[in-house]
Amino acid sequence: MLEPRNNNELPAIPGKRYFTIGEVSDLCGVKPHVLRYWEQEFPQLSPVKRRGNRRYYQRQDVIVIRQIRSLLYEEGFTIGGARQKLGGEEARVDVSQSQQIVRQIRVELEEVLKILRR
Questions:
Q1: What's the CATH code, domain 6-117?
Q2: DSSP secondary structure string, 5-74?
Q3: Are 38 and 68 in contact (CB under 8 A)?
Q4: Residue 71: beta bridge partners?
Q5: Are 102 and 8 in contact (CB under 8 A)?
Q6: Residue 49 — φ and ψ, nearest 5°?
Q7: Distance CA 101, CA 13 (A)
């Protein structure tokens, strides 16, 4: 559903627990100021804020950001339309996120297997 063509060209999400805004920017192909704006527009985005208001995103946040990016940049939704699409499909988004996490883990395991076979 929200697996865009262009997201396949984005780098794999590393197996870390938290990501800085700069790392998420690189992983999602979106500038940091856009991420800060999307936090205001999409209630699904709520990074953890620590010392000095520094943002730390989790894997789930990165997946949601990639979904938002897909809706806005590839499918042509407006901010309001993308918000409705994500808000109205929370259960399906959870399933989609789980599927994306499983795919990501599979890719990472295949990479580990290649390394081990060398």
A1: 1.10.1660.10
A2: TGGGGSPPPPS-S-B-HHHHHHHHT--HHHHHHHHHH-TT---EEEGGGEEEB-HHHHHHHHHHHIIIII
A3: yes
A4: none
A5: no
A6: -110, 130
A7: 9
Supply 95's token pair.
Answer: 């399933």
The residue type found at 39 is E
How many Cβ atoms from other residues are within 10 Å of residue 106's Cβ? 10
Q: Which two tokens stand for residue 15?
A: 């197996």
Please tell me the total number of residues recorded for the chain in this structure. Answer: 118
pLDDT in tens, the chain (118 residues): 334 445 567 888 888 889 999 999 999 999 999 999 999 999 888 899 888 889 999 999 999 999 999 999 999 999 988 888 888 655 555 666 777 788 888 889 999 999 999 8
Dist CA 62 CA 47 (whole Å) = 10
